[in-house]
User: What shape does this take?
Amino acid sequence: MMRPPRRPERSRSSEGVVVALSSLVVATLIGRGLPGPQRLADVVMVYLLAVVLVSMRYGYVLSLAFAVASVLCFDFFFVPPHYTFAVDDPGHLVTFTVMLVVAIVISSLTRRREQLTQDNREARLAMETEQMRNALLSSVSHDLRTPLAVVTGAASTLLDERISPEVRIELTETILMEAESLERRLGNLLNMTRLEAGALEVRRQWQPLEEVVGTALRRTDGALSGRDVRVALPEDLRLVPIDGVLIEQVFVNLLENAAKYTPAGTPIEISARDTGDAVEVEINDRGPGVPAADAAKIFEKFQRGRPDVTGAGLGLTICRGIVGAHGGHISVTRRHGGGASFRFTIPIVGEPATLITETT
Amino acid sequence: VTTPGHLVLLVEDEAPMRKFLRASLTAHGYRLLETTNAADALKQATAHNPDLIILDLGLPDRPGLDVIRAVREWSVVPIIVISARGHEQDKIDALDGGADDYLTKPFGTGELLARLRVGLRHAERVGREPEPTLTFGRVTIDFARRIVTVDEQEVHFTPLEYKLLATLAKHGGKVLTHRQLLKEVWGPTHVEQTQYLRVYMAQLRHKLEKDAARPQYLVTEPGVGYRLRIDA
Assistant: This one.
């Protein structure tokens, strides 16, 4: 937890000494300047006020020292015999004690108040963090509970002996599918947390885009079943400096979105081109497209394309985070002829070590 | 499945995982030894000499890597490690440290059994004459004549391409880390040059696969390495 910055102790205490000394002088002068015959009770009040003021601002040690100094000043200047530290009337000892006790009580009260303020501040910070966490949790818990509910239901049904073998297989397949979806969602959630914490480590390596597209296609095989996914990468496309595992996640999220938001059987196209200082990747579909008004919003956290489609609304936020971590940019436009066109860039910085050429 | 079944040492501290692995392995005729920690795993491995070890990398007492290294001092028994998703470096360390293959949690029975078969097949081949040819799908490699055919048609490979393919084939089905492949094909001074490897893998795919973006044989293990799938 972050603590508010504090003034350095040393400067604070030296400031305290100056303030205390001047207060002592001022209190003494006021005491001397009181009109009419000086009543000791009035003078005590002036000193006491100074003790209170000093104790309210500074710690124990200084407050006590100040109280002792006040007592001495009071004794020296006002208590007969004047200008000596001798005391005629033992009753004044009570006055001295009271001044000391007041100094102790006030400075300890001040310390407690400071502690409380500090606690409050920490509590408020903790509450705000907690609220953010709750927003994330409530959005995500639905997303995780749905597959869990299916798993629980299907598994408990399987325990029933009267279930036919066909249904048994069907339920088992359902459990497997839902568990896999749960795993994917957890993965996204974890990536999101890493992105938010700034803990996403990008391990760039020069590699052909084709390989990453390949692993992404393998991972989305189930979601894209029955789809015509066309891959059109130029044969001579240069190597890109990317973290393969992360960029694969970008492809997976974009492809899964395409599978979720476009009608079954409609084609998806993956293409890329060299723009000189970057490689630009496009994932195009023939679905309903994204309204221009939503084009920026859909990359925000918890934004879902349609409320009836399941998902926590983190997929595109993660894409933006990963692409951004590579120095690139992601956007969506309406596609000519209908559909959505997601486009992201991978800036080319530096160049890979040249290959050892082979003579064949 | 041979009788009596292969003896598998299962080192896993989580009871539900053991339960599912036990059910699946015994159903497929494997005999099973179970333990929950590294110290006992080493004892069991020396006492019973299992045919294969399945080792969870997240053990309570010692890092799984220690177990791999200790076992490798005296045995070539296939070791398949189990590790969590996102812990790619752990997998690489385990593989470079002598493990034969890995499974990422969560995994299904199909994947588990496939890894076991590959591991046992390799163990059986240790010390024997290498097969003169290898056929997978549309591809046949003739090691003696250094000829590769796809759909009965001879395909030309550069020496490095052939060396890379032959290395993958020699360990057919098994995952090989970037480092292992680079060391074997390019030599120990090039183990960091993963882009060489990636470029050559792309070239191999364009020559062997129907669709290089959807490889059937030359499979990428993201962040770890490659494997040649020969039972596709």
Remarks:
- The two ends of chain B are 20 Å apart (CA to CA).
- The CA atoms of residues 50 and 198 of chain B lie 36 Å apart.
